[in-house]
What does this fold into?
Amino acid sequence: MAEVNIYEGAIDKGLEGVVACTTSISFIVGNTLNYRGYTIEDLAANSTFEEVVFLLWNNRLPNKAELTAFSAELNKNMALSPEFIAVLKTLPTNVHPMAWLRTAVSLLAHWDTDANDNSIEANSRKAVRLTAKMGALVTAFEAIRNKREVLAPKADKSIAYNFMYMLKGAEPEADLVKLFDTCLILHADHELNCSAFATRVTTSSLSDMHSAIVSAIGALKGPLHGGANEQVMVMLAKIGTIEKAQQFVQDALSAKEKVMGIGHRVYKDGDPRAAILRKFSEQLTKKIGKPELYEMSALIDDTMNKQKGLMPNVDFYSATVYHSMGIPTDIFTPIFAVSRIAGWIAHANEQYEKNRIYRPRGKWQGKEGLNWQPVEQR
Ligand SMILES: CC(C)(COP(=O)(O)OP(=O)(O)OC[C@H]1O[C@@H](n2cnc3c(N)ncnc32)[C@H](O)[C@@H]1OP(=O)(O)O)[C@@H](O)C(=O)NCCC(=O)NCCS
It folds into this structure.
């Protein structure tokens, strides 16, 4: 009989409770989240996305000159070249934007002279280019599928401003840019979440940064991770009116179906990002004259808490926030990528610094001792 590997180690399905590495990027304890030692509430109230990206990558806040130089560097790298836009226009757009984005980021590597250079210097140049261009890619997709011109970003404007400007082709309202910037801060990193882990797994083979980010986009796309924000909006549209919300939750629970945007592997007493987004949702749905969207969300939140003790995660209220900003529903998850690339890069760099390849084991549950037979005898 062939020797079979029967692994007897403890199994942690979904790696729950497994501590896979040391990290100093972001940390969750109880219902608090911090980036590099600063609470998410502090950063959301006082910081900008660019400043948070600097913080995540450099383990400290920038001084004024550093922030100005870093923001300028990001701004300079935002635009897509006409040659690259021409290639993007050849890609079919009848796919999910996350699938298109995955391909577009992979294609960026073909134009990046540092693509195969894993030195610290090359990785820091690629980090800036990838982060700066993520919003330009998502908005280019929206322009191409609507047969509109792909706009160039405006000089001296932030990632948040340029995203909103290039998405709609119009000057965005200043208060919405501020709110959107805060949304980017809230989504920038989250310890060893699924896509950060995917980044680290790919990086751990000493593969390149573009490959790691493509892995991350693939992981983020799923409805149990970043894809949940889009699904929340789909769910609200399906429910339709507030009167039907409680029954919808009852039916989902009876059918053992997941209510999107609710629950979390780590937070059991609530996600601090959801608390901030809930206020934005209330404010913005009122502003656009659709307060019932917030009210329906709040009722689902309350019902899930009472019925299952589960609370909303970051994706629950961000859905109505983005909807109120007039953003198409299938662009919600790509926005997550526009922000989370900051964290993915921090994780890739931390992994390169202290690398050991990820290689867990699987407990064998298959057949044993079979003998090959010629095809005629099977
Ligand atoms: C976030 C999530 C993937 C965490 O998964 P997890 O840690 O593996 O938790 P589980 O799926 O094992 O859930 C534990 C229990 O809560 C229930 N549960 C968790 N989330 C639920 C949800 N959104 N709706 C209904 N029930 C839920 C599970 O059915 C399970 O119940 P049981 O013990 O009676 O079988 C999960 O809560 C989920 O699928 N949520 C919806 C998708 C989502 O919003 N994802 C974004 C995450 S930021």
